[in-house]
Amino acid sequence: MSLPLTVNPSWVAQMDTALEPLRQSILDTPVVVDASENRLIEGRIQNFLVAFYPIIRDFPQWLELLLGRSPPDGRPFFQDNIRVERRHDSMWRAMGDGFGVTKDRFRARDTMLPEVQSFHDYLTRHCSSEPFALAVSATNYAVEGVAQKISEKALRGLAHNEKIGPRGRWWLEEHAKYDDEHPIQALEIIKGCVGRGEASAADVTSAANKSLELMEHAMKACYRG
Fold first, then answer.
1. Residues 172, 61: Cα–Cα separation, whole Å
2. Which of 8, 3, 10, 26 is nearest to 209 (CA)?
3. Spatial separation of the C-alpha atoms in residues 145 and 148, rounded to whole Å
4. Is residue 179 over pLDDT 60?
5. Are 155 and 166 in contact (CB under 8 A)?
6. CA pair distance 19, 141, nearest whole angstrom
7. In degrees to the nearest 10, what's the CA dihedral of 33, 35, 39, 42?
8. Stated pTM of the model
9. Region label for 208, one of left (φ > 0), alpha (ψ between -120 and 50) or beta (otherwise)
């Protein structure tokens, strides 16, 4: 069941204007550009898929934390989102199969890159203990919103990559399909919180901004040679 859509207050447009440069910076990271041009560097994309995997692996756990904190009208959104994100974990590993990543590399719990650890810690802290609206903004609005745009851009090139095949493109295709809905529903939850005085527009904007900034740093670090 979806939340009914409401008219956006003026602060939403202001938030999106503030976030747009970081969204674009993420879309301009080397891994996304190389994917969009179907020229990913083999060793680097393998390392990227493994190094960034903790974010994919633990995303359903962050959503479960948010589900436990959600008001009743938001619970169906998080329940459905958890179902989708659990499936996305296997899709990510299928993409790894397409690029020749061994299953053992995904099973290993190696130390995260510092940039990934910072991003991971930020999402964990927000979903665990920061004000609910800020956590939804950092996780569902910021990360899921830009993931949809990443998938769309990456598929321009990887749709023609015979090596990874349709199963390897599964994660990207699913995110392009589902994540256009998730940020819209997340925004309704955030607007409700702001409207009730539980958070300020400035604070939810700041939470999303910092999340995108850390995501960009993590993506760049994971794809370095």
1. 21
2. 26
3. 6
4. no
5. no
6. 11
7. 120
8. 0.94
9. alpha
